[in-house]
# Entry
Amino acid sequence: MKQTLGLVGKYFLLMKIVFSKPEKTKIFRKQFFTDTEKLVIDSIPIIAVISLFIGAVIVIQTASNIESPLIPKMYVGYMARESLILEFCSTMVALILAGKVGSNIASEIGSMRISEQIDAMEMMGINSANYLILPKIASATIFNPLLMLMSFILGLVGGAMIIMFTGIITMNQYTEGLQYAFQFYYIVYSMVKMAVFSFIITSISAFYGYYSSGGALGVGRSGTKAIVVSSVTILIANLVITQLMLN
Amino acid sequence: MIKAINVNKNFGEQHVLKDISIEYKPGICSLIIGASGSGKTVLLKSLVGLHDIDSGEIWYEGTQFDNLPFKEKKHLRKEIGMLFQGSALFDFATVEDNIRFPMDFFTDWSEDQKMDRVNFCLARVNLKNVNKLYPNELSGGMQKRVGIARAIALNPKYLFCDEPNSGLDPQTSILIDQLILEITQEYNITTVINTHDMNSVMEIGDQVGFIYKGNLLWEGNKDNILTSNCKELEEFVFASGMAKKVKQYMNA
Ligand SMILES: Nc1ncnc2c1ncn2[C@@H]1O[C@H](COP(=O)(O)OP(=O)(O)O)[C@@H](O)[C@H]1O
Ligand SMILES: [Mg+2]
# Structure
């Protein structure tokens, strides 16, 4: 318990250093674009593929579960939309990103720590935490909500595709369901969640990387811890945000 | 000039630096020698503030460095160049960008001025045609050279080198030592070098401090190190089989 509190304290102290004004805007901007490419753009393919498939699977599952003729078939579209926007596209996608992006950040920063590259920056008088971490947090927090939107749309497309192939329901029933009782607020809710989750993933992974020690083995350990701790934190944050925004 | 007064450093229970007092002058290479684990790296990193010391004082000219606030420490560090044991080149950047790195942060030079300085530093460490290569495409000796070029990019007043010869063959080692000495003399830099390599001591050791288990046991230079009457130093100096034979021969 005491150890956990110590870690949390250390995390917030690091964030304080991370959130200082960058030495030069030009350098920050360059890092920001590099990190956007590495963390956001490069995640598009995997998120796209997963979303298409999950959308398709949700449609099949819901359709096969509606046996009663009293429940209109358009509920398939409605259910698909609701499950995608409420949980899958934010929480599940964030957990996937925690694995992909989290280990990437922790191992990149961790290997810079153990090879003394971070010391070298500090020696030049550069705020290494600010230089290395702030652009990552900023790019993921700003752009990942768009990734969430993409995932939502592709999930719906995946559903549409499976309907085209199998004809479990008609396309008209599906699109009718998609529009049924649509709440724009859910999109806002989901985007907020994704922004918070992205902050959690990038900052926690960077934290574990930044304080890596013990050679290559230590970097590996930091990567694992980064994934585990940010995943658990995401689940807790999900609970809190949902309580705050939907209740 | 750099001055350490009664410096102590602990890691938990372990007392790594014990009451170290030493002074470093400009224009010469000052060596810190000692066995692996004796505390050389910790001393070097304490001198530059990468480790916080537990007691004692560290002075750069008239400024007490160890209790400066972080901002002013950062300011003074711009006058310090450092070559790390593994070179610590940024592996995300080309050779050119590595050397430019501190310039991008701390100067308002134009692109041309920066490139001129990069090429000057590379020429100074005798490297050509490597501008666009990445660190993992260089040999160990070349990495050290780039490390030195980066360390001198902003004309430092102080230069710290942690085991500049580690992982290099004896001939390359001597070339790197010579290079550091030349640069030190040419720009009147206060240079502090960690090493366990006796060849370096004999080449460039104008001031030598011997550390043994965190104590500074002996101070002298390459001319009187072979005749010291410090037992631990003698064991260190004459550790190799060849050195032992030479010693027998000298005694006979
Ligand atoms: N960051 C650290 N945390 C804990 N102990 C350390 C740390 N750095 C060095 N030490 C310990 O300090 C001692 C001296 O290490 P070091 O200065 O690296 O030796 P060397 O003379 O080989 O450079 C060693 O026993 C090492 O285990
Ligand atoms: Mg060492």
Summary: DSSP finds nine helices and no strands in chain A. The pocket of magnesium ion (ligand 2) is lined by residues B 40-41, 85, 162-163 (CB under 6 Å). Chain A touches chain B at residues 23-24, 27, 112, 115-117, 119-120, 122-127 (CB under 8 Å).
